[in-house]
Design goal:
five-stranded antiparallel sheet; 2 domains; mainly beta; Jelly Rolls; 175 residues; four-stranded antiparallel sheet
């Protein structure tokens, strides 16, 4: 025997807030599902031949957001209090045509890595993405970058002042 439940809103039983809505076309939205997009407020200098935590410090305005409030702009970490599988994506623009390696880390350990090398005056852009399980209490994610130049000089990661989409970290709860 089949049952049909006809609802367009599902609320949290304790708070009464809307947890899910279903449109007449069948589209499901979850307004409090953990999701974020963060950027740098300005360029960030990184030393040559040194792994450096990217200081993502902007999570509001200009299409940046943090549903759930789990991104800490002081520690530059995403520490969600909801357990599950999360999809992450990061893009990092190095203001030089040198080698750059970018990593998404879980609890300080590299989970995903990619590198880029550009020549001829074009900036190098490293992009990386992947799916990670987070336990909802102590697991965190951050992003790091590394560049190497034979001459040994520091280089800048592009911040929001130059191009808000050049260096970013974003993620969302899959389930």
């Amino acid at each position: 025997m089949a049952s049909i439940i006809g609802v367009d809103t599902i609320q949290n039983s304790t708070s009464g807030t809307t947890a899910m809505t279903i449109s007449s076309g069948g589209v499901v939205s979850q307004p409090t599902k953990p999701v974020f997009r963060v950027v740098r407020s300005a360029d960030q200098s990184i030393a040559n031949d040194t792994v450096t935590v990217i200081q993502f410090n902007v999570k509001t305005g200009n299409n940046n957001f943090d549903i759930g409030g789990y991104f800490n702009t002081s520690t530059y970490r995403y520490l969600p209090l909801v357990a599950g599988y999360y999809s992450f994506s990061m893009g990092v623009l190095l203001e030089d045509d040198m080698y750059i390696m970018v990593n998404i880390r879980k609890n300080g350990q590299v989970e995903f890595q990619n590198r880029a090398w550009t020549a001829g005056g074009l900036y190098s852009t490293g992009q990386v993405s992947g799916v990670i399980y987070l336990n909802g209490s102590t697991d965190y994610v951050d992003g790091v970058a590394y560049h190497y130049e034979g001459g040994g000089g520091a280089k800048n990661l592009r911040g929001e002042d130059g191009d808000r989409s050049a260096t970013y970290l974003c993620g969302f709860l899959i389930g």
